[in-house]
C-alpha cells in the first residue's frame, strides 16, 4: 500500500501544482470574461459526459477489485462496463448536439460548444477506474503527469492574448482526453476486450443507484457553474472559477489516501472483515482531518493573497467567495470519507442516493434564491450549504448501519493548532513584504508551526511518518513506519 500511496501522492501533488502554474497565466491573459466563457462551455459539456458515465468510474473500481484475481472474470466485467459506457457516450453526444443547435442561447459561442462535444463522445475512454481497481497507481500517475506537462507547454505556446480563449478550451480538453486515450490504448496489457457472452443486465441495478447519486451530486458540484452562467454572466463565472479553483484543487491531496484504500475496503467488506475496514478508515480519517482543517484556515486567512498571486488583481473581487468556499476541503473531504470509503464499498447505494437528494434540494433552492441577487457569492453559499447537508446525511446512514469508531479528538487538536496561524500571519503582514513573499512565507511558516504544534503539543507523529515513508520509498536508509 505504501508504494501506491507514494504514486497517488505524486499524482495529487501534480494535480495541485498544475492549476497553480497554469491558471495564473491563463487568468491574466484571458481575464474573468474569457475564463468564465471557457469554464461555462466546459462545465456544460462535462455535465453530459457525467451522465454518460452512469456511475461507472465509481462502480467500476469495486467490481474490478473483486474480479482482479480471475482473468476471465476480469475481462468479462471490463468488457461489459465498456460496452455500456460506449453506448451511453454516443447517445448523450447526440442529445447534447441537438440541444446546442436547437436553443438560441448557445449560438453566441456555438463553435466552442460544438468542439466540446468531444468531452462526451470520447467519455468512454476514461478508464482510470479499471487501473484503480487493479491498484495500478504507478501507471495512472506517470500518464497523468506526462499529459499535464504537455498541456502546460501548449498553454504557453498558444495562449498569448485575450482572443485565444478557444485555444484554452482545446488545451483543457487535451488535458482530460489525452490522458484517457493513452490509458485506453495501454489497457490491452492488463486485460482483453470481448463482445460475446456478456451479461450487462446484472450491472443495471447497482449502476442505477450510483448513476442517480452521481447525477444528483453533480447538481451542486458541477452544475453550479452552469446555473451561475445562466442566471448571471461570464464575469461572475470567471470570479467563481478563480475562487473555487484553489479550494477544490486542495481536495486532490485531502482525498489522495482514500483513492488507494477504496479497492481494499471494498474487498474487506465483501469478505465481512469489518475489523480490517476499521483499520483502514482509521488511517484515512486521521489523514483527512490532519490536512483539511489547516488548508481551510490557510485559504480563508490568505484569500486576498491567493487570489492576487494566482489569478491577478482583476479577480480580487472573488476574495469573499473564496473565503466561503474554503470550507469545502473539510466538508467534501469528510463527505468523500463517509460515502466512498464506507457506503459505496458496503453497497449502500440507495442511502447514497437519498443523501445527495438532500444536497440537490438545498442547492437548487439556494442557487435560484441567491444567485440572481448575490451572483458568485450566492453560488458559493449554495455550494457550501449543499455539501454540509450531504455530508451530514452520509454520516447519518453510516451510523445507522455500522458502529465504526472515529477519533473525534483529532478535530479539536487540529483547530487549536491552526489558531497559531493568526499571530504568524499578522507578524508577516507587519513586515510589509511584496505579496508574493507574503503568501509563500505565510504558507511555509504556518506549515512548520502546525506540524511542530501537532508534534510537541499532542505527540502526533503523522506528518513525520508520511515524510519517513516517502524517504524510505526514495531509498533513504531508515526503518519505515506504518501510517
Instruction: Sketch the major β-sheet.
Output: none
N-to-C terminal Cα separation, in Å? 10 Å
Low-confidence stretches: 476-483
Overall pLDDT:
83
SSE sequence, one letter per element: HHHHHHHHHHHHHHHHHHHHHHH
What class, by secondary structure content? mainly alpha
- What portion of the residues fall into strands of 2 or more residues? under 5%
Inertia-based shape:
globular
Number of domains: 1
Estimated radius of gyration: 22 Å
Count of DSSP H/I helices? 23
The helix fraction, in percent, is over 70%
Description:
- By secondary structure, the chain is mainly α.
- Helices cover 80% and strands 0% of the residues.
- The chain is built from 23 helices and no strands.
- Helix 2 (56-67) crosses helix 13 (256-270).
- The longest helix has 52 residues, at 2-53.
- It is globular and about 70 Å long.
What order do the helices and strands come in, and which of them pair?
Layout: H1 2-53, H2 56-67, H3 71-102, H4 110-115, H5 118-121, H6 128-133, H7 137-158, H8 165-186, H9 201-221, H10 223-231, H11 234-248, H12 251-254, H13 256-270, H14 274-301, H15 303-311, H16 319-325, H17 328-343, H18 349-374, H19 376-401, H20 409-418, H21 421-430, H22 435-458, H23 462-473
Helix pairs in contact: 1-3, 1-7, 1-8, 1-9, 1-10, 1-11, 1-13, 2-3, 2-13, 7-8, 9-18, 10-11, 10-18, 11-16, 11-19, 13-14, 13-17, 14-17, 14-20, 15-22, 16-19, 17-19, 18-19, 20-22, 21-22
Notable traits:
483 residues, mainly alpha, globular, disordered C terminus
Q: What's the short version?
A:
By secondary structure, the chain is an all-alpha fold. 80% of the residues lie in helices and 0% in strands. The radius of gyration is 22 Å and the shape is globular.
